[in-house]
Amino acid sequence: MAIKSFQGIRKASKKEFDAPILVSDYMTTKLVTFAPDQSILEVMEQFAKYHISGGPVLDDNGFLVGIISEADCMKQISESRYFNQPILDKSVEKYMSKEVETIPHDTSIFDAACIFDKHNRRRLPVMKDGLVVGQISRKDIVIAALKLSGHNWK
């Protein structure tokens, strides 16, 4: 009598780990935004109030026109000391960075890490269909990498 080779019921193949790895999975969506005509003093107060170091500047239609950071505020502070004047009520538009690097919402965190490394920025506005939908920071990328550290990256 012949014996057939029988391996038994096979286990279901293990699915690949499907972790969220897009910028949109880790970005901040509740942003503090600023207006070009807003006072630089108001911006500094909001930085302190919300414990942030920068944010996007949007026009009246919600389109990105710049980004303001603590470093930009330092220009105002140093100028006021140089000219021995109080910090004046000047507008954000004068101090904001107008050339803003942005990142698409569907970029992987790995590509985002390369962009941060290449451009030496602390934060990037996240864009979808020409509008700001969030902001991603270096810290957000580090947190995402820590969450994925126990899995194989392919």
UniProtKB/TrEMBL annotation:
PANTHER family xrefs: CBS DOMAIN-CONTAINING PROTEIN, CBS DOMAIN-CONTAINING PROTEIN CBSX3, MITOCHONDRIAL
Domain of life: Bacteria
Residue stretches making up the CBS domain: 27-83, 96-154
CDD domains for this protein: CBS_pair_bac (cd04629)
Name recorded for this polypeptide: CBS domain protein
Keyword Ribosomal protein: no
Keywords: CBS domain
